[in-house]
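Question: Now follow the chain.
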Amino acid sequence: MSKVSVTGAKGVMPTVIETIHELNLVHLSDYDGSWEGFDNGNPIEGADDASEKLVTVRALESTLDLADAETPAPQGTLADNWEQRLEEVRTRVNELDDQRTEVREELRQVEDRIDRVSPFAELGIDLDLLSGYETVDVLVGEGSPGEIEAELDAAEDIRAYETFISGDVIAIVAAPTDAVEAAVDESESETGSEDDGNVIDDALVGIEFTRYDVPDTDQSPSSYVAELEERKADLESRLTEIDDELERIEREDGQFLLQLEEELTIEVQRAEAPLQFATSNRAFIAEGWVPSDEFDRLTTALRNAVGDSLEIEELERASYDRHGAHSHTEEIQKGTPEGDADAPAQADADATADDEAADGEKQTAVTDGGSAVTMGDEPPTIQENPSAAKPFEVLVQAVNRPKYSELDPTIFLFLTFPAFFGFMIGDVGYGLLYVAIGAYMATQFDSKGITSLGGVAIWAGLFTILFGFIYGEIFGLHVLGEVLWHDTLHVDLLPLNKGLEPAAADFALGWMVVSVIAGIVHLNIGYILDFYENLSHGVKDAVMHSGSWLLMLNGIWIWIFSAQARGSKPDFLFNTFASDGPFPIGFTGFPEWGLVTIPLGVTDFLLTAPLLVFLIGFGMLLVTDTVEAVEALDVIVNVFSYTRMGAVLLAKAGMAFVVNLLFFGAYRDPDGAFHFLRTHEPSYVAEHYGDGAEVIFNGLMHSGTAALVGGLVILVVGHLVVLALGVTSAGLQAVRLEYVEFFNKFYEGGGANYEPFGHDRNETEDH
């Protein structure tokens, strides 16, 4: 990236803005107002009007749902009468939208009234019979008739009552006792107002009861409902007419609105560009970043547009270290030194000289006035990765975009995340579904984020298939392993067992060891990348800081896998890769590599080479950063975090096993191995093995038609649940290992996205 400066008289600023905008190359820097006599510029005349029209257009697009519509991209240019057309569309759409709002509100009120009167229609009692009584109370509502009548029977203030029931709706007519009536009459005579109390309400206060207010109408409930239904139908018909009219406007004017939005967006961008410039009464200075190989194209375009009345400089081609400091700056400018406080004044003087040039006299640019790097922003970041790794940029950006100065970890995420995911799920069936889901997301959505996640899902699915072949599993069944490895290729080592069976428990512990080794390798890569980045500070800094962590990490883990103090270490560390272990490669641990015996009074301590390597690394870190040395044991803790991969592998395999067990059933043969009853009835076990085998569960598929149907539901739903939890467990755990354990070793992020000032014409095509 190159930092460029463009200086000139304010008179040419609109032309410069238009030229830079069309090039779509310059990532503008924001002027911070630090130069004496220079302020941030004001928007070009017409910006407010263009912004107002842009807001109007976007509001119309929202009303017409143009964002969701498949409107063809418009062609050509806007007609001269576009403002008149916009006003006509705005007026018509707003009228229709107001009408739609009114109709929807009235429709809501009608539906509410229908809901309120429907219970009375169900009772079949005229509405005028449910109110207006002086000696009895009437109440209509919904509740349990049994509970209601029990409460009414127990009420001391009710002398007699009658109920009318239809479904869950009940009408109650109750006469209060003489004492209650007398008390009400006395209260009314003292206060001069009627008592609105209802003895039925008082009686039912302790039970669940929904009260309905009696509608104010002289009509029968059924005729009232019929009238409301007719009005509802009229309103729905009117609403359909309005929607049809809006759809017609969308078809006829949708392209126009999209084209107008694009043109206005461009106009607003151009008009508001001076807000990022440093301007005085006569001059302006704009700075920004361009790809270094594009500087000549920028210069040529500006010279062609405004001639020699500009000073265009490539100020620097800079590299920054991960902490934001200049690690290398290649000076390009030939004028004022960087940071010269007189540069703004010189620019203003140059502009004045240009303005005062005689008419017809050729204006010449000042070649030695110079500029200064005053807008102290870092270069923006352009992430450039192979197409296969491109989708994983979305996972990096979820943390933070890489700085211009640091390594983009996308390629490493691409190489490790799918492998971690596939290791944890490891099933051909699930992998095929992940690939299918990812392909759908990548091809059926316009959102860049969703399509990128689709690409990630495809790669995760492919590695799930790969590990599925290694484990020989398809939807939790080992059919694939038996057919592929044993019957076809006659390979004894594969498939590898996940370790769910008691006879294969060594595999379960073995996968934990494999997870630890994966963590050691992964963290080594992280520290090596940190070493590479710290080389910008010098070899000594890289060795003392990053090298110390590499020494500690490898020293302590080689010691853990060494023969020293083997009796106090778990046996599976040494048995996992032994010749008779689950992964028989003949490794039973590193030797002691003893160096010197140190007497400690009570006992002697053997200092071995791995421990010495760890202590050297710790000493280097202690000298470099005492505070960070407190975290030295992170080289153990961080690696242990990777055992979550083995745990998820066993958990997901166990869930799939349970689903298959419920449907197929299973038995254990005399050797202790599990087998699903896929092709045999439970009786096969006793006939084939005698008393030496045991049926664990008969399976729903062998338990009758009803059980078979229910079992199929359990089989499908169960595997879908495992599929979904694979994302929330394996996916999240893999992401956590990348973000927390791996990225923390070398990556900070916080870079700015490269957003050149300009506009890619996605909607229109100039002619």
Summary: The radius of gyration is 40 Å.
